[in-house]
Write a structure and sequence with these properties.
15 helices, six-stranded mixed beta sheet, alpha/beta, Serine Threonine Protein Phosphatase 5, Tetratricopeptide repeat, Metallo-beta-lactamase, Chain A
Length: about 425
Protein backbone atom coordinates (compact mmCIF):
# COMPACT_ATOMS: atom_id res chain seq x y z
CA UNK A 1 0.00 0.00 0.00
CA UNK A 2 1.37 3.40 -0.99
CA UNK A 3 1.94 5.93 1.75
CA UNK A 4 -0.14 9.09 1.89
CA UNK A 5 2.86 11.19 0.92
CA UNK A 6 3.63 8.95 -2.04
CA UNK A 7 0.02 9.07 -3.20
CA UNK A 8 0.01 12.86 -3.08
CA UNK A 9 3.39 13.02 -4.81
CA UNK A 10 2.27 10.70 -7.61
CA UNK A 11 -0.98 12.58 -8.17
CA UNK A 12 0.80 15.92 -8.30
CA UNK A 13 3.45 14.54 -10.67
CA UNK A 14 0.91 13.13 -13.10
CA UNK A 15 -1.36 16.15 -12.90
CA UNK A 16 -4.25 14.26 -11.34
CA UNK A 17 -3.96 16.86 -8.59
CA UNK A 18 -3.18 20.45 -9.52
CA UNK A 19 -0.74 22.48 -7.44
CA UNK A 20 -3.06 25.44 -8.02
CA UNK A 21 -5.62 23.59 -5.86
CA UNK A 22 -3.48 21.29 -3.68
CA UNK A 23 -0.88 23.94 -2.93
CA UNK A 24 2.37 22.23 -1.85
CA UNK A 25 3.33 25.28 0.20
CA UNK A 26 0.42 24.66 2.51
CA UNK A 27 0.55 20.88 2.92
CA UNK A 28 0.89 19.84 6.56
CA UNK A 29 0.42 16.10 6.70
CA UNK A 30 2.54 15.33 9.74
CA UNK A 31 5.33 12.78 10.08
CA UNK A 32 5.77 9.73 7.90
CA UNK A 33 8.64 7.19 8.05
CA UNK A 34 10.33 6.78 4.66
CA UNK A 35 13.14 4.31 5.32
CA UNK A 36 14.52 2.57 8.37
CA UNK A 37 15.76 5.44 10.50
CA UNK A 38 14.53 8.15 8.12
CA UNK A 39 11.34 10.19 8.49
CA UNK A 40 9.82 13.23 6.83
CA UNK A 41 7.68 15.84 8.55
CA UNK A 42 5.36 17.51 6.06
CA UNK A 43 4.77 21.02 7.33
CA UNK A 44 4.67 24.59 6.06
CA UNK A 45 8.42 24.09 5.77
CA UNK A 46 9.39 20.43 5.77
CA UNK A 47 11.73 18.71 8.21
CA UNK A 48 13.82 15.64 7.38
CA UNK A 49 14.75 13.44 10.36
CA UNK A 50 17.51 10.85 10.59
CA UNK A 51 17.72 8.49 13.55
CA UNK A 52 21.24 7.38 14.49
CA UNK A 53 22.93 5.52 17.34
CA UNK A 54 24.19 8.88 18.68
CA UNK A 55 20.90 10.72 18.43
CA UNK A 56 18.58 12.50 16.07
CA UNK A 57 19.75 14.56 13.08
CA UNK A 58 17.39 17.09 11.53
CA UNK A 59 17.67 18.87 8.22
CA UNK A 60 15.70 22.04 8.97
CA UNK A 61 13.59 22.36 12.10
CA UNK A 62 10.39 24.24 11.26
CA UNK A 63 8.88 27.69 11.64
CA UNK A 64 8.39 29.79 14.75
CA UNK A 65 4.64 29.19 14.42
CA UNK A 66 4.81 25.39 14.17
CA UNK A 67 7.97 24.38 16.06
CA UNK A 68 6.20 22.70 18.98
CA UNK A 69 3.85 20.85 16.68
CA UNK A 70 6.82 19.48 14.75
CA UNK A 71 8.55 18.50 17.99
CA UNK A 72 5.45 16.57 19.01
CA UNK A 73 5.34 14.72 15.69
CA UNK A 74 8.99 13.76 16.00
CA UNK A 75 8.50 12.56 19.56
CA UNK A 76 5.84 10.13 18.34
CA UNK A 77 8.53 8.62 16.11
CA UNK A 78 11.59 8.67 18.39
CA UNK A 79 12.58 9.63 21.92
CA UNK A 80 16.24 10.16 21.00
CA UNK A 81 17.90 13.43 21.87
CA UNK A 82 18.56 15.93 19.11
CA UNK A 83 22.25 15.56 18.28
CA UNK A 84 22.61 17.79 15.20
CA UNK A 85 20.45 20.21 13.25
CA UNK A 86 21.37 21.47 9.79
CA UNK A 87 19.81 24.69 8.56
CA UNK A 88 19.44 24.70 4.79
CA UNK A 89 19.10 28.50 4.92
CA UNK A 90 18.06 31.21 7.32
CA UNK A 91 14.42 31.78 6.41
CA UNK A 92 12.19 31.87 9.45
CA UNK A 93 10.04 28.92 8.39
CA UNK A 94 13.08 26.60 8.57
CA UNK A 95 15.13 27.53 11.64
CA UNK A 96 12.94 27.76 14.73
CA UNK A 97 12.61 24.19 16.01
CA UNK A 98 15.83 23.88 17.99
CA UNK A 99 14.75 25.73 21.14
CA UNK A 100 12.14 23.14 22.06
CA UNK A 101 14.75 20.37 21.89
CA UNK A 102 17.18 22.48 23.92
CA UNK A 103 14.58 22.94 26.65
CA UNK A 104 14.05 19.19 26.65
CA UNK A 105 17.80 18.50 26.80
CA UNK A 106 18.23 20.82 29.77
CA UNK A 107 15.33 19.16 31.60
CA UNK A 108 16.64 15.65 30.97
CA UNK A 109 20.34 16.38 31.42
CA UNK A 110 21.26 15.62 27.82
CA UNK A 111 24.01 17.27 25.85
CA UNK A 112 22.76 20.24 23.87
CA UNK A 113 22.35 19.87 20.10
CA UNK A 114 24.82 21.27 17.60
CA UNK A 115 23.54 23.51 14.80
CA UNK A 116 25.39 23.59 11.48
CA UNK A 117 24.85 26.12 8.69
CA UNK A 118 26.62 28.08 6.00
CA UNK A 119 28.86 30.90 7.19
CA UNK A 120 26.62 33.59 5.63
CA UNK A 121 23.61 32.62 7.76
CA UNK A 122 24.62 34.65 10.82
CA UNK A 123 24.63 37.86 8.77
CA UNK A 124 21.08 37.07 7.64
CA UNK A 125 19.92 36.76 11.24
CA UNK A 126 21.64 40.06 12.04
CA UNK A 127 19.80 41.72 9.15
CA UNK A 128 16.47 40.25 10.26
CA UNK A 129 16.93 41.85 13.68
CA UNK A 130 17.87 45.19 12.15
CA UNK A 131 14.86 45.22 9.80
CA UNK A 132 12.37 43.47 12.07
CA UNK A 133 9.58 45.98 11.53
CA UNK A 134 9.89 45.83 7.76
CA UNK A 135 9.92 42.04 7.80
CA UNK A 136 6.77 42.00 9.93
CA UNK A 137 5.03 44.25 7.40
CA UNK A 138 6.02 42.41 4.23
CA UNK A 139 5.41 38.93 5.61
CA UNK A 140 2.03 39.96 7.03
CA UNK A 141 1.17 41.13 3.51
CA UNK A 142 2.70 38.19 1.62
CA UNK A 143 1.18 35.45 3.77
CA UNK A 144 -2.02 37.34 4.71
CA UNK A 145 -1.53 36.86 8.45
CA UNK A 146 -2.90 39.95 10.24
CA UNK A 147 -0.74 41.18 13.09
CA UNK A 148 2.21 38.91 12.26
CA UNK A 149 5.24 39.86 14.37
CA UNK A 150 8.65 38.98 13.00
CA UNK A 151 10.93 37.15 15.47
CA UNK A 152 13.54 39.12 17.38
CA UNK A 153 15.69 36.23 18.60
CA UNK A 154 17.46 33.55 16.54
CA UNK A 155 19.41 30.38 17.16
CA UNK A 156 22.79 31.09 15.58
CA UNK A 157 24.84 28.12 14.30
CA UNK A 158 27.55 26.53 16.40
CA UNK A 159 29.47 25.28 13.37
CA UNK A 160 29.71 26.94 9.97
CA UNK A 161 31.34 26.04 6.68
CA UNK A 162 32.11 27.78 3.40
CA UNK A 163 31.92 25.39 0.40
CA UNK A 164 31.42 21.78 1.53
CA UNK A 165 31.36 19.87 4.78
CA UNK A 166 31.04 16.20 5.71
CA UNK A 167 29.20 15.36 8.93
CA UNK A 168 29.06 11.84 10.38
CA UNK A 169 26.69 11.06 13.24
CA UNK A 170 26.19 7.51 14.49
CA UNK A 171 27.59 6.04 11.27
CA UNK A 172 25.32 8.18 9.05
CA UNK A 173 27.21 10.34 6.54
CA UNK A 174 25.79 13.70 5.51
CA UNK A 175 27.51 15.75 2.81
CA UNK A 176 26.72 19.46 2.95
CA UNK A 177 27.11 21.70 -0.10
CA UNK A 178 26.78 25.46 -0.34
CA UNK A 179 24.73 26.85 -3.21
CA UNK A 180 23.34 30.31 -3.79
CA UNK A 181 19.73 30.32 -4.84
CA UNK A 182 16.77 31.67 -2.94
CA UNK A 183 19.37 32.92 -0.45
CA UNK A 184 23.10 33.49 -0.30
CA UNK A 185 23.42 31.12 2.68
CA UNK A 186 21.92 28.02 1.06
CA UNK A 187 22.88 24.47 1.99
CA UNK A 188 21.72 21.26 0.34
CA UNK A 189 22.40 17.88 1.90
CA UNK A 190 23.28 14.54 0.28
CA UNK A 191 22.98 11.21 2.12
CA UNK A 192 25.08 9.03 -0.19
CA UNK A 193 24.46 5.64 1.44
CA UNK A 194 20.70 6.21 1.30
CA UNK A 195 20.72 8.06 -2.06
CA UNK A 196 18.54 10.72 -0.44
CA UNK A 197 18.80 14.39 -1.36
CA UNK A 198 17.54 17.21 0.88
CA UNK A 199 17.24 20.28 -1.31
CA UNK A 200 15.92 22.87 1.09
CA UNK A 201 14.05 25.52 -0.86
CA UNK A 202 16.02 24.92 -4.03
CA UNK A 203 13.08 22.70 -4.98
CA UNK A 204 9.55 23.54 -3.75
CA UNK A 205 7.09 21.99 -6.24
CA UNK A 206 6.65 25.39 -7.92
CA UNK A 207 8.45 27.81 -10.17
CA UNK A 208 11.51 28.81 -8.12
CA UNK A 209 11.08 31.56 -5.55
CA UNK A 210 13.74 33.55 -7.33
CA UNK A 211 12.20 36.97 -7.91
CA UNK A 212 10.16 37.71 -4.79
CA UNK A 213 9.42 41.44 -5.13
CA UNK A 214 9.44 42.13 -1.39
CA UNK A 215 12.53 40.20 -0.35
CA UNK A 216 16.31 40.44 -0.64
CA UNK A 217 18.44 39.38 -3.59
CA UNK A 218 18.07 35.95 -5.23
CA UNK A 219 20.64 34.21 -7.47
CA UNK A 220 19.09 32.49 -10.52
CA UNK A 221 22.30 31.54 -12.34
CA UNK A 222 23.98 30.04 -9.28
CA UNK A 223 20.72 28.29 -8.40
CA UNK A 224 20.69 26.52 -11.74
CA UNK A 225 24.30 25.43 -11.28
CA UNK A 226 23.47 23.91 -7.89
CA UNK A 227 20.50 22.05 -9.38
CA UNK A 228 22.72 20.62 -12.10
CA UNK A 229 25.15 19.43 -9.45
CA UNK A 230 22.34 17.74 -7.53
CA UNK A 231 20.93 16.13 -10.66
CA UNK A 232 24.24 14.41 -11.38
CA UNK A 233 24.26 12.49 -8.08
CA UNK A 234 21.75 9.79 -8.96
CA UNK A 235 19.48 10.47 -5.99
CA UNK A 236 16.55 8.08 -5.67
CA UNK A 237 14.58 10.20 -3.18
CA UNK A 238 14.25 13.99 -3.11
CA UNK A 239 13.12 15.63 0.11
CA UNK A 240 12.12 19.22 -0.73
CA UNK A 241 11.77 22.32 1.39
CA UNK A 242 8.04 22.45 0.59
CA UNK A 243 5.70 19.84 -0.83
CA UNK A 244 5.93 16.03 -0.78
CA UNK A 245 9.01 13.95 -1.54
CA UNK A 246 9.77 12.71 -5.05
CA UNK A 247 10.64 9.04 -5.48
CA UNK A 248 12.55 7.43 -8.33
CA UNK A 249 15.89 8.43 -9.85
CA UNK A 250 14.34 9.37 -13.20
CA UNK A 251 11.77 11.68 -11.65
CA UNK A 252 14.33 13.28 -9.33
CA UNK A 253 16.73 13.98 -12.19
CA UNK A 254 13.95 15.36 -14.38
CA UNK A 255 12.60 17.67 -11.69
CA UNK A 256 16.03 19.10 -10.90
CA UNK A 257 17.17 19.38 -14.52
CA UNK A 258 14.02 21.06 -15.75
CA UNK A 259 14.03 23.52 -12.87
CA UNK A 260 17.59 24.40 -13.88
CA UNK A 261 16.52 24.76 -17.52
CA UNK A 262 13.74 27.17 -16.57
CA UNK A 263 16.13 29.40 -14.64
CA UNK A 264 18.81 29.18 -17.33
CA UNK A 265 16.36 30.27 -20.00
CA UNK A 266 15.24 33.33 -18.05
CA UNK A 267 18.83 34.23 -17.19
CA UNK A 268 20.08 33.95 -20.77
CA UNK A 269 17.19 35.89 -22.26
CA UNK A 270 17.49 38.67 -19.69
CA UNK A 271 21.25 39.10 -19.61
CA UNK A 272 21.61 38.98 -23.40
CA UNK A 273 19.17 41.89 -23.64
CA UNK A 274 20.92 43.78 -20.87
CA UNK A 275 24.17 43.35 -22.78
CA UNK A 276 22.44 44.80 -25.86
CA UNK A 277 21.55 47.95 -23.91
CA UNK A 278 17.80 47.43 -23.60
CA UNK A 279 15.72 49.03 -20.86
CA UNK A 280 14.12 46.93 -18.15
CA UNK A 281 10.63 47.64 -19.48
CA UNK A 282 11.65 46.41 -22.94
CA UNK A 283 13.24 43.28 -21.50
CA UNK A 284 10.16 42.41 -19.46
CA UNK A 285 8.09 42.75 -22.62
CA UNK A 286 10.29 40.28 -24.51
CA UNK A 287 11.45 37.58 -22.08
CA UNK A 288 9.27 34.49 -22.17
CA UNK A 289 9.79 31.48 -19.93
CA UNK A 290 9.36 28.20 -21.86
CA UNK A 291 5.66 27.33 -21.69
CA UNK A 292 6.39 23.59 -21.74
CA UNK A 293 8.39 23.95 -18.53
CA UNK A 294 5.86 26.20 -16.81
CA UNK A 295 3.24 23.55 -17.57
CA UNK A 296 5.12 20.95 -15.51
CA UNK A 297 3.25 20.18 -12.26
CA UNK A 298 6.33 21.12 -10.23
CA UNK A 299 7.14 24.37 -12.09
CA UNK A 300 3.84 26.22 -12.23
CA UNK A 301 4.14 29.86 -11.12
CA UNK A 302 1.83 29.58 -8.12
CA UNK A 303 4.16 31.33 -5.66
CA UNK A 304 6.72 33.40 -7.56
CA UNK A 305 6.70 34.07 -11.31
CA UNK A 306 9.13 34.59 -14.21
CA UNK A 307 8.57 38.34 -14.60
CA UNK A 308 9.76 38.85 -11.04
CA UNK A 309 12.87 36.77 -11.79
CA UNK A 310 13.67 39.12 -14.68
CA UNK A 311 13.39 42.11 -12.34
CA UNK A 312 15.57 40.33 -9.79
CA UNK A 313 18.24 39.70 -12.42
CA UNK A 314 18.18 43.38 -13.36
CA UNK A 315 18.67 44.31 -9.72
CA UNK A 316 21.51 41.79 -9.39
CA UNK A 317 23.44 42.85 -12.49
CA UNK A 318 22.15 46.32 -13.30
CA UNK A 319 21.19 48.16 -10.12
CA UNK A 320 17.94 50.01 -9.45
CA UNK A 321 17.87 52.44 -12.41
CA UNK A 322 15.63 50.84 -15.04
CA UNK A 323 16.90 52.78 -18.07
CA UNK A 324 13.99 55.24 -18.26
CA UNK A 325 15.43 58.74 -17.63
CA UNK A 326 12.11 59.95 -16.18
CA UNK A 327 12.46 57.33 -13.44
CA UNK A 328 15.94 58.43 -12.32
CA UNK A 329 14.57 61.27 -10.17
CA UNK A 330 10.81 60.98 -10.68
CA UNK A 331 8.04 63.27 -9.57
CA UNK A 332 6.33 62.22 -6.38
CA UNK A 333 3.26 60.00 -6.78
CA UNK A 334 0.94 62.71 -5.48
CA UNK A 335 2.21 65.28 -7.99
CA UNK A 336 2.01 62.84 -10.87
CA UNK A 337 -1.49 61.74 -9.88
CA UNK A 338 -2.73 65.31 -9.62
CA UNK A 339 -1.32 66.21 -13.05
CA UNK A 340 -2.75 63.16 -14.81
CA UNK A 341 -6.12 63.72 -13.15
CA UNK A 342 -6.12 67.33 -14.32
CA UNK A 343 -5.40 66.23 -17.88
CA UNK A 344 -8.19 63.63 -17.67
CA UNK A 345 -10.76 66.09 -16.39
CA UNK A 346 -10.58 65.19 -12.72
CA UNK A 347 -10.07 62.18 -10.46
CA UNK A 348 -13.63 60.95 -11.10
CA UNK A 349 -13.01 60.73 -14.85
CA UNK A 350 -9.68 59.05 -14.26
CA UNK A 351 -11.08 56.39 -11.96
CA UNK A 352 -14.05 55.80 -14.27
CA UNK A 353 -11.63 55.00 -17.06
CA UNK A 354 -9.73 52.72 -14.66
CA UNK A 355 -12.93 50.80 -13.93
CA UNK A 356 -13.70 50.44 -17.63
CA UNK A 357 -10.22 49.09 -18.33
CA UNK A 358 -10.46 46.74 -15.36
CA UNK A 359 -13.77 45.30 -16.53
CA UNK A 360 -12.31 44.72 -20.00
CA UNK A 361 -9.34 42.80 -18.56
CA UNK A 362 -6.73 45.55 -18.98
CA UNK A 363 -5.69 45.20 -15.36
CA UNK A 364 -2.20 46.69 -15.51
CA UNK A 365 -3.37 49.94 -17.11
CA UNK A 366 -6.38 50.07 -14.81
CA UNK A 367 -4.16 49.89 -11.73
CA UNK A 368 -2.02 52.81 -12.92
CA UNK A 369 -5.05 55.01 -13.45
CA UNK A 370 -6.71 53.97 -10.19
CA UNK A 371 -3.52 54.68 -8.27
CA UNK A 372 -3.15 58.14 -9.82
CA UNK A 373 -6.79 58.90 -9.06
CA UNK A 374 -6.29 57.88 -5.44
CA UNK A 375 -3.26 60.15 -5.13
CA UNK A 376 -5.10 63.03 -6.79
CA UNK A 377 -8.16 62.74 -4.54
CA UNK A 378 -7.12 61.18 -1.21
CA UNK A 379 -10.08 60.29 0.96
CA UNK A 380 -12.63 60.51 -1.83
CA UNK A 381 -15.04 57.66 -1.08
CA UNK A 382 -16.04 57.07 -4.72
CA UNK A 383 -12.43 57.00 -5.89
CA UNK A 384 -11.37 54.71 -3.05
CA UNK A 385 -14.22 52.27 -3.69
CA UNK A 386 -13.37 52.09 -7.39
CA UNK A 387 -9.66 51.66 -6.62
CA UNK A 388 -10.54 48.80 -4.29
CA UNK A 389 -12.51 47.03 -7.01
CA UNK A 390 -9.77 47.50 -9.59
CA UNK A 391 -7.19 45.87 -7.33
CA UNK A 392 -9.60 43.09 -6.30
CA UNK A 393 -10.11 42.17 -9.95
CA UNK A 394 -6.37 42.29 -10.53
CA UNK A 395 -5.81 39.91 -7.62
CA UNK A 396 -8.42 37.50 -8.98
CA UNK A 397 -6.64 37.46 -12.34
CA UNK A 398 -3.22 36.64 -10.89
CA UNK A 399 -1.78 33.16 -10.47
CA UNK A 400 1.12 33.72 -8.07
CA UNK A 401 0.80 34.23 -4.32
CA UNK A 402 3.29 37.10 -4.51
CA UNK A 403 1.14 39.18 -6.86
CA UNK A 404 -2.20 38.19 -5.33
CA UNK A 405 -1.11 39.25 -1.85
CA UNK A 406 0.12 42.70 -2.90
CA UNK A 407 -3.02 43.44 -4.91
CA UNK A 408 -5.33 42.14 -2.19
CA UNK A 409 -3.74 44.39 0.38
CA UNK A 410 -4.09 47.34 -2.02
CA UNK A 411 -7.77 46.49 -2.41
CA UNK A 412 -8.32 46.14 1.33
CA UNK A 413 -6.61 49.42 2.19
CA UNK A 414 -8.91 51.26 -0.20
CA UNK A 415 -12.13 50.24 1.53
Amino acid sequence: MSSKLRQISDKLWTGELSTRIENPMMQMMGLEPLQDGLAFVSSFANVSALGTSEGLVLVDTGSFLLARQIHGSLREWTDARLHTAVFTHGHADHVFGVATFEEEAEHKGWAQPVVIAHEALAARFDRYKYTRGYNSIINERQFRVPGLQWPSEYRYPDVTYRDTKVVTVGGERLELFHGKGETDDGTWVWLPERKVLCTGDMFIWASPNCGNPQKAQRYPREWALALRQMAALGAETLLPGHGPPIWGADRVEQALTETAQLLESIVEQTVSRMNAGMRLDEIIGQVRAPEALLARPYLRPIYDEPEFVVRNLWRLYGGWYDGNPAHLKPARDEALGAEVAALAGGAAALVARAEALSLSGEHALACHLAEWAGKAAPGDAVVEAARSQVYARRADAEGSLMAQSVYLQASNTSS
